[in-house]
Specification:
Blueprint lengths: L3 H9 L1 E7 L5 H17 L8 E7 L13 E7 L5 H4 L8 E3 L8 E8 L2 H10 L4 E9 L1 E3 L8 E4 L7 H22 L7 H9 L11 E11 L2 E9 L3 H14 L4 E11 L2 E2 L11 H56 L1
Parallel strand pairs: 5-11
Antiparallel strand pairs: 1-5, 2-3, 4-5, 6-10, 6-11, 7-8, 9-10, 11-12
Amino acid sequence: MRSPAVRMFRSLEGLFCVYKPAGVHWKLVRDTIETNLLKGVNATSAQPLPHEVRFLSNPNNKPEAAGGLALRAAAVPVLSKHPLVTGPEFQHMKVGVGHLLDASSSGVLVLAVGNGNRTLNDLYRTRTTREYTVECEFGTATHDFTQMGRVVERSTYEHITLDKMERVISMLEGANQKALRMYSSVDMSSQEAYELAVKGLLGPDGKSVPILTGLRCIHFQPPNFTLEVQCLNETQKYLRKVVHEMGLELRSTAVCKGVRRTRDGPFTLQDALTRHHWTSADVMQAIQQYRSKKRSKKGSRTLTDKAMLQTSEETLTVSQESEADKETAIAEVQCS
């Protein structure tokens, strides 16, 4: 029979996401959550101690009349199984991390517990895109493309307009669409490539160079502007470099003030647990919500497939009936 701690650990196995604050290393986030989960699992009510039969002396210390024995059989708890002797039931808990965020970035960080690490690997073998909101500023260039880096150049930016920005964005999108087709493993002239492109699934299998699948400016008020980015196989350093190159294309300089991940595959900011909710109870609830959402998506896909199959069968039946009507009409004309 499983102990309460084991049952709780089984319910914690799965995927969830947290909101990583800026200025905090992802390892500190993972270690904090591991510690909280271990405390929560080991704090569950322990099972009663097992008992064993031992022969103890009679409390009255008087020998028995029959055999002259001063012992009695008694069931006593096995103290070697006590938690104070054996220690916590769980000494370590494996918490895996998905796509990493560097220390200066913030946003959605996907984690996995137990067997959820296998699910995490399967999830990231697919073409899962990530979305970012990038805060930027014209007029400055630094050695590491961040606002806190060493300033290497300052420039003017009054000549930059939104139209010029949109032209640079269109140029970048075109170059990345070409790279997306280049690294895809399907023939671009095939029907398969067309169907994948319609569904938004066209992309490289496995590792490739970073590719921007979407880029737009959602706020433009020089010197400040904000970009919304969808990408594959990226790093936060690459996104900062893109901002720097955009500044150069606009005959100016630009620096990244902040990178925030807003979506990682199926996980969004609405699913992310903030620092005050990194407890075992909140993590368990988040994992259960992800499981139920996944089941509902599978159910909706099944219903859609059934509806499409029924529609195709009805279409086939109607076409067969129309063919039969045509043959009947032809036969009647020939008889007349």
